[in-house]
């Protein structure tokens, strides 16, 4: 079993991993026989005299006294009996073959030991599948608490746990399948992991600024045609169903998102994943709470009236705490309308993993030149904050152009077919 | 009373030298000796792991006792049991494969050096708890007696076990119930690093054992013929139903307690003195003096033994590992109770 | 159906086993001439003789090991260790030999041994004579652990234990020996798994052995207060019948484990962990445990009673669960 050619650091005990030669009993040129003691070795537990298991002549000592090496390291070369080199070795002084010149030989690969089998431990039996029973939703205590805090309906959350059990992280994940049966794959947002929405927003915004290279474009849009159309439209509507300008703006964004799909989607796994639907997030303020931006799902398929209804409903539910997880899940693009706040221009911060945030300032009369004439027109400044990884200014400009284009011809906003 | 057991020397007079038996005993000891030496080498090369306790120097005991046992009888041994397993007829390949941790080993690789088992040979281990096997030996003998099998149980242990409560309980039970147990105390004078005089108030071990009303006498454990004669007498008494027998087999281990032992507690001169009574040398000399063995015959024996061990090592090297999926197999006999395992590293 | 005490039922089981199979024999301290420390083997010495009702000296390790050897040698011993308190002297034989030999030998040697031990506290026997260590033994792979709590189980669990090719430990709570009850026919008794001793809807109370009567009384008390408790008698501590426990918890959504052992690292801890692993989503509140106080058992009656699980403790735990106070 001895490997001719080398004398290696032996294993002298169950837990010995390294050893140190304290003294060589034999040296280069010495003849050795099987069973001879050749060295005194310190095993960290005791000093033990070690024997050699081959006959031959010591060639060269590879490890110096006092040096600690792992078990299996070649300590000396041994020239087997009868080999041609034996005679030379017997008289040679220690001159090393180049490859073995180092005083501390590198540890050789350990002898082919059966690799320790992966520790296999009995896994507790899989939890009994718990079906949902009637109205009862299976959810972890944490998920329940978070859902309560955020005003989310557990029943609408798709649970990732056994038997559909809802965990805390499910509250942020992709929306459930829409009633229309359209498959949605939305990447998961960063798990909130924290019941305090303010902290969650803070983390999100910090991440946005840290990770997303924003670029900004602004475009002043003449809203007169749209607002005149709106006024005429509202005259035919009951008070409760009147449409606000905000709905027009949201609708225009939805149409533009269809026209320029490069801004409708998410940046995930180092690439842009276009969304298959247009879910426009709408930034909503709640008294005493930070901003929330739930989505109007399938906004491209809603006409202005339906958009208004959706907006109204969203705002009402956001304010009283009845938003669904699917609405909270990643919109494909978000609109922030701070016109009521009195500012002219909004420079938005994108909500990752979205790639765009459209901002609208207040609608106000401004001096506007057109056809060589200067007049007062109601104008709004639309801005686009966009992720430069996904698009460049050229595409962003096309988008804002599409928004302006849509608002220039309000009738077209009523069209819900794809208008590519 | 602190008289030490008188060292008994069997010098061959009165021991008939049966050529066949003498030759077999020598071969048995040589197989054990070379096997153990090979284990040292393999351990140093990290092929054998864990603890390794060698029988070098004590071979005459296993080689001398086993021939008096037959297939009805059982053997219970300690963690220093390679020699007993080989002498009892457990194939060298199965023992070596066991130490390699291979499934072809006599315990499917689950026991290692200290837990050799063989159902075929009624070899009940291989026990790592000092004196842990003695009560089991008593129970086996109880069963054999009740069932009328005619079997006896040879139980091997070191003199260190005589300090354990289980030794005393077992001796008492065996004597009380008149059970056919052969208590073989292998007195090698050291319980790991503790000399006999420092651990026993009464160092005359046969005398101590006799206090349990059992037949007890000291034997020269380095003389395989003396051991064989003692075993013959003892098993005859056991089969006749005369109650348990205790043999104090005086021996010496030439190497340390185990691989990791620096052996600081013994004087080199003492070891050298005992080496002069190397059981293999004694047996060989006796056979040569009687004209029953010559140089070439002995060389042939060495070669034969070397081949057997080479084969055993090759067998072990070529062996396979028990699939990890079988980890929980044989925890119980009921497969339904075997805990379910799933693969993968946890 | 006949009525008898737990003691008598145990004796009948042994008598029947010895009569049916000559390999079966009883071995232990004072099992013969004395009739058994707790009177369980009374009369058997006269009926079966000294070879089959074998008195041993005070050598727990010795005679338990002998039982192991005898089992390996072809007999079917019933070893009686007087109480679990003395079993500690035989722990090496039980753990390192009985539980281990089959696996360690690669499947070559079965140990078809039955060990019976009396266990538990409540008779002012003080610290060294009052242990409940069956949970400890249930930790060891290779052993089957039974804890009969009813007269029927005392009568009928011994036979399958003797038929088992592997070692079985049977723990008999000392307070049960005098309990009288009807013995149901063996055909109507399931020999494995836990038993629902009382059906209920509001809380699952899991227990075994000597605490079963106390828990059933607590269930009565709870019922008077409008709480419907389901009481599960484990019967087997290793293996545990997870299915019965989880099925119950899935219906009641609240669980209490009552265990006379100390709570730390006990069988109740194991059961709690399993309930969390397997029925987490069914729980409406954390699993509760009612165990002995973490003290060596004192001698004075009032102190001992204060240390042991009582009806009031179980009732309070159930009320707290149902009342959403935990």
Short description:
The complex is a heterotrimer of chains A (420), B (346) and C (326). Helices cover 40% and strands 9% of the residues of chain B.
Biggest pleated sheet of chain B:
5 strands, parallel
Helix and strand content put the structural class of chain B at alpha/beta
Strand numbers in spatial order across the main sheet of chain B: 1-2-3-7-6
CATH architecture of the largest domain in chain A: 2-Layer Sandwich
- The CATH fourth-level homologous superfamily of the largest domain in chain A: Chloramphenicol acetyltransferase-like domain
Structural class designation of chain A = alpha+beta
Query: Which spans of chain A have pLDDT < 50 for at least 5 consecutive residues?
Result: 89-132, 174-195
Structure write-up:
- The complex is a heterotrimer of chains A (420), B (346) and C (326).
- Chain A is α+β, with helices and mostly antiparallel strands and 420 residues long.
- Chain A contains nine helices and 19 strands.
- In chain A, strands 9, 12, 15, 16, 17, 18 and 19 form a seven-stranded mixed sheet that branches. In chain A, strands 1-8-6-3 form a four-stranded antiparallel sheet. Chain A has a four-stranded antiparallel sheet with strand order 5-4-2-7, with no helix packed on it.
- Chain A is elongated, with a radius of gyration of 38 Å.
- Chain B has one domain: 3-Layer(aba) Sandwich (Rossmann fold).
- Chain B contains eleven helices and seven strands.
- In chain B, the strands form two sheets. Chain B has a five-stranded parallel sheet, with helices on both faces.
- In chain B, a hairpin with a 2-residue loop joins strand 4 and strand 5.
- In chain C, helix 2 links the parallel strand 2 and strand 3.
- Chains in contact: A-B, A-C, B-C.
- At the A-C interface, loops of A face helix 11 and helix 12 of C.
What is the secondary structure topology, with strand pairs?
The complex is a heterotrimer of chains A (420), B (346) and C (326).
Chain A: E1 6-8, E2 18-24, E3 31-32, E4 37-42, E5 47-51, E6 56-61, E7 68-70, E8 74-80, H1 84-91, H2 141-150, H3 197-211, E9 214-222, H4 224-235, H5 245-259, E10 265-268, E11 271-274, E12 280-282, E13 284-286, E14 289-292, E15 295-296, H6 304-320, H7 325-328, E16 333-337, E17 356-360, E18 364-370, E19 373-387, H8 393-408, H9 410-413
Parallel strand pairs in A: 12-16, 16-17
Antiparallel strand pairs in A: 1-8, 2-4, 2-7, 3-6, 4-5, 6-8, 9-19, 10-11, 12-15, 13-14, 17-19, 18-19
Chain B: H1 19-44, H2 59-65, E1 74-76, H3 82-88, H4 92-99, H5 134-147, E2 153-158, H6 165-176, E3 181-187, E4 190-191, E5 194-195, H7 205-210, E6 215-220, H8 224-239, E7 245-250, H9 268-275, H10 279-289, H11 295-318
Parallel strand pairs in B: 1-2, 2-3, 3-7, 6-7
Antiparallel strand pairs in B: 4-5
Helix pairs in contact in B: 1-2, 1-3, 1-10, 1-11, 2-8, 4-11, 5-6
Chain C: E1 2-5, H1 6-20, E2 24-28, H2 44-48, E3 53-55, H3 60-72, E4 76-83, H4 84-87, H5 91-98, H6 101-104, E5 114-119, H7 134-137, E6 144-146, H8 151-156, H9 158-163, E7 168-173, E8 180-183, E9 195-198, E10 203-207, H10 212-224, E11 229-233, E12 236-238, H11 242-252, E13 255-262, H12 267-279, E14 288-292, H13 301-307, H14 311-322
Helix pairs in contact in C: 3-5, 10-14, 11-12
């Amino acid at each position: 079993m001895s490997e001719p050619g080398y004398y290696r650091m032996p294993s002298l005990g169950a837990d010995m991993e390294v050893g140190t030669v304290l003294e060589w009993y034999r040296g280069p040129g010495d003849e050795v026989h099987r069973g001879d003691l050749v060295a005194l070795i310190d095993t960290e537990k005791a000093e033990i005299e070690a024997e050699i298991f081959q006959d031959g002549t010591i060639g060269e000592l590879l490890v110096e006294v006092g040096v600690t090496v792992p078990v299996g390291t070649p300590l000396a070369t041994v020239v087997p009996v009868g080999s041609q080199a034996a005679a030379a070795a017997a008289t040679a002084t220690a001159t090393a073959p180049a490859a073995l010149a180092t005083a501390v030989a590198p540890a050789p690969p350990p002898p082919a030991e059966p690799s320790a089998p992966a520790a296999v431990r009995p896994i507790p039996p899989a939890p009994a599948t718990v079906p949902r029973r009637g109205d009862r939703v299976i959810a972890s205590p944490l998920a329940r608490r978070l859902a309560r805090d955020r005003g989310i309906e557990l029943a609408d959350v798709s649970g990732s746990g056994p038997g559909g059990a809802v965990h805390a992280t499910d509250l942020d994940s992709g929306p459930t399948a829409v009633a229309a049966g359209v498959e949605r794959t939305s990447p998961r947002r960063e798990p909130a992991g924290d019941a305090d929405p303010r902290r969650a927003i803070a983390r999100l915004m910090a991440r946005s600024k840290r990770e997303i290279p924003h670029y900004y474009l602004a475009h002043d849009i003449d809203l007169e045609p749209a607002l005149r159309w709106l006024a005429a439209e509202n005259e035919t509507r009951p008070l409760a169903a009147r449409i606000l300008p905000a709905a027009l703006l949201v609708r225009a964004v939805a149409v533009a998102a269809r026209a320029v799909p490069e801004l409708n989607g998410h940046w995930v796994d180092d690439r842009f994943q276009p969304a298959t639907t247009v879910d426009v997030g709408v930034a909503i303020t709640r008294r005493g709470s930070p901003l929330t931006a739930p989505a109007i799902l399938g906004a491209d398929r809603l006409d202005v009236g339906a958009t208004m209804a959706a907006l109204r409903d969203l705002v009402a539910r956001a304010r009283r705490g009845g938003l669904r997880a699917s609405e909270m899940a990643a919109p494909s693009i978000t609109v922030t309308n701070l016109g009521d706040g009195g500012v002219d221009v909004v420079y938005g911060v994108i909500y990752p993993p979205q790639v765009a945030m459209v901002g609208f300032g207040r609608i106000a009369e401004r001096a506007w030149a057109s056809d060589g004439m200067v007049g007062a027109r109601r104008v709004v400044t639309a801005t686009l904050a966009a992720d430069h990884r996904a698009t460049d200014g050229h595409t962003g400009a096309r988008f804002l152009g599409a928004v302006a284009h849509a608002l220039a011809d309000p009738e077209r906003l009523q069209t819900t077919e794809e208008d590519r | 009373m602190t008289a030490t057991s008188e060292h008994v020397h069997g010098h061959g007079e009165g021991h008939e030298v049966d050529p066949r038996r003498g030759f077999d005993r020598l071969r048995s000891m040589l197989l054990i000796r070379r096997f153990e030496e090979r284990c040292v080498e393999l351990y140093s090369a990290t092929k054998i792991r864990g603890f390794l306790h060698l029988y070098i120097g004590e071979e005459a005991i296993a080689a001398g006792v086993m021939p008096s046992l037959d297939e009805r009888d059982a053997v219970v041994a300690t963690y220093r049991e390679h020699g007993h397993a080989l002498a009892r007829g457990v194939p060298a390949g199965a023992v070596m494969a066991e130490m390699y941790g291979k499934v072809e080993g006599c315990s499917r690789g689950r026991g290692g050096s200290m837990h050799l088992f063989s159902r075929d040979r009624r070899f009940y281990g291989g026990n790592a708890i000092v004196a842990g096997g003695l009560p089991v030996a008593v129970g086996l003998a109880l069963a054999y007696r009740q069932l009328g099998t005619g079997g006896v149980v040879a139980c091997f242990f070191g003199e260190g076990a005589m300090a354990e409560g289980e030794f005393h309980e077992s001796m008492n039970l065996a004597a009380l119930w008149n059970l056919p147990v052969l208590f073989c105390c292998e007195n090698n004078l050291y319980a790991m690093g503790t000399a006999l005089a420092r651990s026993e108030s009464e160092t005359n071990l046969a005398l101590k054992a006799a206090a349990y009303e059992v037949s007890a006498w000291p034997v020269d454990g380095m003389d395989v013929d003396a051991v064989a004669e003692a075993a013959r007498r003892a098993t005859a008494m056991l089969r006749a139903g005369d109650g348990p027998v205790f043999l104090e087999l005086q021996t010496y281990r030439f190497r340390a307690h185990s691989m990791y032992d620096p052996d600081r507690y013994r004087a080199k001169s003492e070891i050298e003195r005992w080496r002069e009574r190397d059981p293999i040398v004694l047996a060989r000399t006796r056979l040569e003096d009687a004209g029953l063995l010559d140089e070439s015959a002995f060389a042939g024996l060495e070669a034969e033994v070397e081949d057997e061990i080479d084969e055993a090592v090759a067998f072990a090297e070529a062996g396979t590992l028990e699939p990890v999926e079988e980890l929980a197999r044989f925890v119980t006999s009921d497969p339904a109770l075997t805990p379910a395992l799933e693969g993968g590293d946890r | 159906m006949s009525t008898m005490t737990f003691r008598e039922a145990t004796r009948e089981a042994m008598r029947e086993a010895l009569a049916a199979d000559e390999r079966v024999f009883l071995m232990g301290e004072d099992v013969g001439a004395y009739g058994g420390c707790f009177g369980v083997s009374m009369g058997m010495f006269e009926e079966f003789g000294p070879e089959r009702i074998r008195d041993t000296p005070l050598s727990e390790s010795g005679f338990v090991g002998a039982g192991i050897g005898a089992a390996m040698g072809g007999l079917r011993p019933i070893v009686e260790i007087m109480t679990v308190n003395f079993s500690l002297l035989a722990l090496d034989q039980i753990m390192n030999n009985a539980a281990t030999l089959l696996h360690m030998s690669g499947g070559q040697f079965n140990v078809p041994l039955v060990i019976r031990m009396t266990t538990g506290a409540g008779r002012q026997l003080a610290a060294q004579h009052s242990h409940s260590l069956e949970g400890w033994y249930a930790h060891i792979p290779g052993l089957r652990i039974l804890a009969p709590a009813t007269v029927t189980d005392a009568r009928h669990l011994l036979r399958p234990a003797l038929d088992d090719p592997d070692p079985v430990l049977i723990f008999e709570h000392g307070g049960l020996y005098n309990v009288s009850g009807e013995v149901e026919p063996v055909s109507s008794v399931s020999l494995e798994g836990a038993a629902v001793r009382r059906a209920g809807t509001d809380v699952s109370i899991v227990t075994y052995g000597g605490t079963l009567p106390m828990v059933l009384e607590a269930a009565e008390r709870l019922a008077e207060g409008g709480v419907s408790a389901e009481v599960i008698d484990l019967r087997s501590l290793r293996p545990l019948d997870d299915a019965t426990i989880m099925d119950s918890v899935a219906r009641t959504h609240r669980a209490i484990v009552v265990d006379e052992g100390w709570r730390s690292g006990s069988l109740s801890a194991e059961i709690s962990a399993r309930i969390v692993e397997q029925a987490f989503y069914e729980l409406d509140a954390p699993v509760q445990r009612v165990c002995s106080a973490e003290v060596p058992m004192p001698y004075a009656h009032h102190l001992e009673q204060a240390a042991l699980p009582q009806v009031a403790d179980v009732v309070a735990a159930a009320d707290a669960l149902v009342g959403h106070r935990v």
